[in-house]
Amino acid sequence: MDFQLDDKRLALQKAVREFAEKELLPGVRERDETSTFPVDAYKKIGEMVLIGLPYPKEYGGQGGDYLDYAIAVEEIAKVDGSVAISYSVSTSLYGGSVSNAASEEQKREFLPPVLSGQSFGAFGLTEPNAGSDAGGCITTATREGDHYILNGAKCFNTNGPLADYFAVYALTQPEKKAKGLSCFLVKKGTPGFSIGKIEDKMGIRAAQVSELIFDNCKIPAENLMGEEGQGFKVAMKTLDGGRIGVAAQGLGLAEGAFEIARKYLMQREQFGKPLYKNQYLAFKMVELECQIEQARLMLYKAALDKSEGRPYTLSAAKAKLLCTDAAMHVTTEAVQMLGGNGYMKDYHVERMMRDAKITQIYEGTNEIQKLVISGQLFR
Fold first, then answer.
1. Annotation marks residue 255 as catalytic
2. How far apart are the C-alpha atoms of 269 and 330, rounded to whole Å?
3. What is the mean pLDDT of residues 362-374?
4. Active site residue: 109, 289, 363, 367, which one?
5. Fewest CB within 10 angstroms: 49, 298, 349, 378, which?
6. Which residues pair with 187 in a beta bridge?
7. What whole-number distance in Å separates Cα of residue 193 and Cα of residue 376?
8. At what angle do helices 231-267 and 66-77 cross, to 10 degrees?
9. DSSP secondary-structure letter at 312?
């Protein structure tokens, strides 16, 4: 068993790290303050074929695997958690929905624009009364001849205001509840489809998150992905992959904050010596380093499980739990170790702490991950 990245992955890691430091770090504080997303930088990510990393070349991907993709999200998140989650949603949730459910013809039409980075993808599942209970959706899709008519609303949709393509989950057979859920492809500009409230958030402030409103939205029947009633299964499978993306985001936030704290402890002097000479702080950094390493190994295992065709629901849940808990813990400790400076925006760690909190919540709260894991333990 080899725990080292091969030369190809090391080169990918280096390229993405350099891109993030050159293209994303300048202006990251200002984008956080103004809630502005760097669309041009995102398109450059597409030009590097990062968004399509884990997808076949015939759909506009690079033919890599999920570990490649996780490494890329991780490196971006070290600098900008907002861009990391936007990237993850396009690749894991929109791309995953299409990949898991769509016909060959649909994949060839609806994947390349998003995997190229020229368009954003979004994922419409969560509703005001259907969060952790995804089966509680009430948005409907009624068949009328050669069309479906969608009515309802989705909330907390990352990329919503930016996206041209949406994977939307709606009930075709409401009486069956979760078993009546189906998945549809919806394009921006479709009559009856509009963007609702754009959220003002604590963290990931540059990421664009909104409501999706469907008011007698008429879409072609051929935009149904898979069969009616298969939507819940597709959504759950897609979220398993999405949790690997969120885990990578969490890991990157933890690593980014850790490195800022490490450099600070080496440079800052108090009581006539560098802070790292204080054994308590040095030991605290050791604890954080071990937590990060544990999280990284779990993430990479989950990514390889998915890439190599092994069951990955459980490993993805563990990775999401460990990596996002690490993100929250490490960023909070980084703020504390930097003292007053940690509370100031110049040092980035307060932003990372705010960004980290949502990673424990979206794409299945960490309590949901514990339900998934405990369900496997006691079978």
1. no
2. 22
3. 97
4. 363
5. 378
6. 165
7. 40
8. 50
9. -
